[in-house]
Amino acid sequence: MNLPSLYIVIPCYNEQEVLPITAPMFKAKIEHLVSQGLCSDESKVLFVNDGSKDSTWDIICSLAKKDSVFKGITLSRNRGHQNALLAGLMHAKELCDVTISIDCDGQDDINAMDEMMRQYHDGCDVVYGVRSKRDTDTFLKRFTAESFYKFMKLMGAETVFNHADYRLMSKRALQGLAKFKEVNLFLRGTVPLVGYKSTSVYYERNERIAGESHYPFSKMLNLALNGITSLSTKPLRYITTIGLVMAFISFLVIIWAIAARFAGNTVAGWTSMVGIMALIGGIQLFCLGIIGEYIGKIYSEVKQRPKFIIEKTTDDE
Fold first, then answer.
1. Which of 187, 233, 264, 312 is 20 to 30 A from 56 via CA?
2. Phi, psi for 208 (deg, rounded to 5)
3. What are the boundaries of each domain within the chain?
4. Digit-coded pLDDT (tens) for 158-192
5. Is the torsion defined by CA of 98, 103, 105, 108 positive or negative?
6. Fold of the domain spanning 6-212+305-316
7. What is the pTM of this model?
């Protein structure tokens, strides 16, 4: 039986502090998977430099020169985590049979790759790495992260709870992903839409080995907004519902005002009038903001700008 070739795809942005530590870990994992008969000795570690401003690319090139197991590509500029990851996956899909995407900070348990590969051999095209618990997180981090997934589900975006971007994808799953042409990318919601047989592998997440996190709360919030507006039209339906409810309430208020007028109980109500106007105005602006988000997405999509441009690879160095 021919063993599948595996590429571990790792997006990197300003990771000069952590790369020298985690790169040997990824190499050791490749060697372990080969020794277990889970992948071929042609398997590689592919780093994707997302326009880093530090010496990340120099480190990747140095690793590639010293050991052929390491490969690297660099984007022409910073395009964000999701686009960098997609660039690596699309580059790898022509070179291997299966990919596993993972961040380079050492937080995701690389030992879960063993079970991922076993599930692949059992016929799964997609295997999601899912956190089993969040005991190491602070209360605020745990609350915001879990709220993120619950809110996404409420808004109609199909995601796997507590799954980020640690996943295995077969070649045919990657080919299916390549057919999704949208510019506003949210892989956590797009990959489930590809279909094929899938399963989950559970693991415990570690503390970041070195460096600083590149996903503060503001970026998480922006990711959620992008994911919702890219994958679901539920917010627009909620706007319709809000409009119908407000129209019904307004109708009741009109009836009450007419009844009060004929009963002679009308009193000058400046405060209540201002309050109602402010409430309705606020709801209108909020709804226009959501509609504006969708219009902005349409604007981005129709221009069909490339999601990434690969400047060069370590093979070019």
1. 187
2. -60, 130
3. 6-212+305-316, 234-303
4. 777 777 788 999 999 999 988 888 777 777 778 88
5. negative
6. Spore Coat Polysaccharide Biosynthesis Protein SpsA; Chain A (3.90.550)
7. 0.70
